[in-house]
Specification:
By secondary structure, the protein is mainly α. The chain has 5 helices and no strands. 88% of the residues lie in helices and 0% in strands. Helix 1 runs parallel beside helix 5 (105-158), helix 2 (27-33) packs antiparallel against helix 3 and helix 3 packs antiparallel against helix 4.
Length: 160
């Protein structure tokens, strides 16, 4: 439990401010920059949900793990006699299992941070693709107009 708390604190120190800043970005900002399609909406929604989960783990994880450690101690100290009853054993095992589950949080958090990174890469690539398409379309329009513009310039030069 203590090791999980230390790992979580280290992750929070390293990534907490970045996650906080990313979470404050309105998903519409990403949608406005990407192609307007279902894939973009799915990516933006996944990023928003993942950031919300990461932020929840960063902001409450240490407290949740500490409460689980305390719950294991309380379950052990609640044993009244020299041998635990079946209910005591069930309580201790349930508290321990909850703690073990929460101790996996730092590893899961790192996976979620990788997912955030990967989603941002996808967003960046889609934004670049969309920008490249827009530039290509604009260049094509310019090239399509070019012969007419040349003719107009020549006519002006010769006075027609």
């Amino acid at each position: 439990g203590r090791q999980a708390i230390e790992e979580l604190e280290a992750i929070t120190e390293e990534f907490g401010s970045v996650v906080s800043k990313l979470q404050r970005v309105d998903p519409q900002t990403y949608l406005d920059a990407m192609p307007a399609d279902e894939h973009s909406r799915t990516i933006a929604r996944r990023l928003e949900e993942t950031l919300r989960t990461v932020w929840d783990d960063i902001s409450t994880g240490v407290v949740r793990i500490q409460k689980a450690i305390d719950a294991v101690s309380e379950a052990i100290f609640a044993v009244a006699g020299p041998t635990p009853t079946e209910a005591d054993r069930v309580g201790i095992i349930a508290a321990r299992d909850a703690l073990v589950n929460l101790c996996e949080m730092p590893g899961m958090l790192l996976q979620q941070l990788r997912m955030v990174r990967d989603l941002r890469k996808v967003i960046d690539a889609r934004v670049q693709e969309d920008a490249a398409r827009a530039v290509a379309a604009h260049a094509k329009e310019e090239l399509d107009r070019l012969p007419e513009d040349r003719t107009a310039i020549v006519r002006r030069l010769i006075g027609r």
